[in-house]
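Worked example 4.2. Below are the chains of a multi-component assembly; read each line carefully before continuing.
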Amino acid sequence: MPLTVGLLLALSFAVSLLALAGLIWAISNHQLKVEQEDAYTIFAEGEAGTPDVDTPKHAPEIDRNQYDVRRAGLDVVSRPAVLLLVGSGVFWLVIGSAFGLLASLKLHLPDLLTEQAFFTFGRARTVHLNLVAYGWLSMTGIAVAMWVAPRIFHTPLRFARLPVVGAILWNIGVASGAVAIANGWTDGEEWLEIPWQIDILLAVAGAFFVVPLLATAARRDVDHIYVTGWYYLAALCWFPILFAIANIPYIHSGAQEATVNWWFAHNVLGLWLTPLGVGAAYYFIPKIIGKPIYSYSLSLLGFWGLALFYSQVGMHHLIGGPVPTWVVTLSIVHSVMMFIPVIAVAINQHVLVARNLWAVKESLPLRFIAFGALMYTLASFQGSIEALRSVNSVTHFTHYTVGHAHLGAYGFVSLIMFGAIYYMLPRTTGRAWPWPRAIAWHFWLVVVGFTIYFVSLTAGGLLQGFAMLDATRPFADSVRVTLVYLEWRSVGGALMTAGHLLLGIHVLALLARGPAWVPQTGYHPEPAVES
Amino acid sequence: MTRPEEPSRPGENFEPYEEMRQIPIGVIMFAVALALWGGVLLYQSSYAVAVGRADETVLSPQSEQGLGLTGAKLFEANCTTCHQPGGEGVEFAIPPLDKSPFLAGGPEIAASILLRGIDGPIRVGDETFDGHMPSFASALDNAEIARLATYLQARFAGRKQAISGERVAALRREIADAGPFAGGQEIAARFDSSLSPQPEVKPLAGGMGISSGILELVNQGRGEVWSCSSCHGDRGQGADTVPRLAGLPADYIAKQLLDYTEGRRRNENMELVARSLSETEREGLGRYYASMRAASTARPSLGGNLERGRELVLSGDWSIGVPSCTSCHGPSAFGVTPGFPGLAAQHPSYTASQLAAWVSGERDNSRQKMMNVIANALNDRDRAAVADYLATLPPVPAPATTADEVKR
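Applying the procedure described above to all two chains together yields the following structure tokens:
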């Protein structure tokens, strides 16, 4: 067998899979052993096996899975950071949606707002992307992490003032990045448009988020880190590395630059937004339902599978591009291998939701989060299939890809963040939502809006792709055929934006009342909506 | 959907945790199956690399290996459409190669003519021809020109003197941008004064008669309309789906511009540009590009079968009712004035997209509808084959742009 690139790739692929399997086997076995020993730690030496008649009502399992957050006062410590981050996130969501809607309208009303370069499509779309990715999703995701991490680590957030400073710096970075882009100053690469000079500010701000979370994790009061914690800790280590490497100016150019560009652009979804979303879903779904996750081993498979496979996924954007074939093939294989961790997460989360549908009906936050978790599965399956050369040659450079991107970033991450905000804010402020019915309105506006959005872009994108591939049709046909679908996309986008406005007003109304510094006793913050 | 018999809402103090379950066997089997698929696909990527390497060799005309055709095959593929399979030429039109004194003087003469082409009167035997030989410098690589020149000399002059690829490479460097030989006189002066007396060369009118207005349209554009060269290149060489214009018949160019103006031919960019032109300007631009010479920048790029392309271009395929391209577009597909454009050295993306446009009716600006019928008979693979083959041909030699013709 001659030593070829293919043989080397196949061998290293096999070795890495064996290592992954070995790692998961070792961790889960070790954990099983620890669980056994754990169960004995509550007994004094030699006491195990003897009935303890004095305390019959305190079964050990119940103690292990109960923790009074309010008594520990955790939410009060994280409150300033969480409120500032959520408030900023929702603010950028509203502005970012407005730019997204403008960009969408321009695709079928090309003469709209053309007088100023600021409002042209190229800039409006780019401002939209950066505001929702770095403003809305990142800040809200960090807010949820700041709120959840102390709860799973059983210890207050450390250096709780740092994230407040970080949020202020991050806001300045996002705002100046958007202004720079709107004025035509960009780095010229998708997802990396914010000029690198401003990125330095974002990187510094990022450190103000990472340090408190790592410090909190280091001083945790639990032996076992719950799966949400793995995702958060990993995301906070991965993202700074990705962001810093991809933004270093003057070291990559030409085809390498494109490769690094897509390595980053796809990893920012899979190794930053995805762990923030999946981690949150892993916390809120069992928390709201009140029952455990299906399988610890599957959690391991889902997490380590993501860690191994995802980092190579981005190069499927360069299928047919001037990069070595094996790089692209490796990326395609890894994209398809993502089926494995996604199925693991899907079983873990959906089994629990499907067995407790009553909770989806009763809890509006869970409704958002369960819907978002389902969209994660769909977006990932779709993404794996889209990476195949046969499918990619139709869908690449079409609106289909835009639909897919929104299925992931919106249907999945944004929906989970909505649910998390609705669950989190009453608990952190000690105040109930002023208009519970508005939450249901928000849910249906964004779900209906997004369905219209996704279906029309998917259909229009496929038609566009087939038109572009048909050599006997002029290029203009591939544009004309999408027109009606683009109009529907604007309708869907308008509904989504209306939902975001509703959320923004609701959050403002809640915050305007000021936090109740000491939650009233007997207060139950779950929104009392039966819809 | 109703909550099972539970005493109350889930407690606020519940801590999420995971149950100790093994990974379901179905998931493991699925993972193993995917891993096998991935391993096989990665292993096979070597195959894709090998195919890519082979393609590169075929596509690069400057590579020393080329298609590896023998001199005889190169002669058949490149020379016989004009000089005929027996090298006898065509009376009054194409000089014979057989027993040509130009071949007797050593293979360097033939190699130089192949590299530079001829643009002027030449006397072979007792006959004088109006020489319009294309330059093969951009169509054949050094080794191919060496093999072809050696073959021509052996076959038609009976001399077994060979020329090497290195020598041709040196000639290529010497010649650089010298352009075509201005007829037999220059060849004789350069190589062999013993050649039979060559006819006088009348000065060409190159560049003359092209008004500064036309040059401005070509190079700078006018008002809101951009220049021709911004898309078609400074030598009218084109790129991809932007056609090569150098050497197309003047009347053909003027007609296309008029058709764009009046909506008979459609293209968003060209319609806008053409509508700004007057009739004089359309004709002037036609003459400008017709007289232009540019090395071929076209390369086969569609993965078409070159053998099949050659068959369709030179012989047609009567089983599907397709005549040869050369039957109308002239020998070597250099075009026939006034109505048939040259196809040689045209960019394959452009040729294929035009053939496709004739099929769909997107292009139908010929009154006879001939191209609609022919293109419709070709399938996708045939269209790619024809387009790729045409890209391997040498570029159209410039027509005689004598002073009289330009003044017309």
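Take a moment to check your reading of the output against the notes. Strands of chain B lie at 118-124, 127-133. Residues 146 and 165 of chain B are 5 Å apart (CA to CA).
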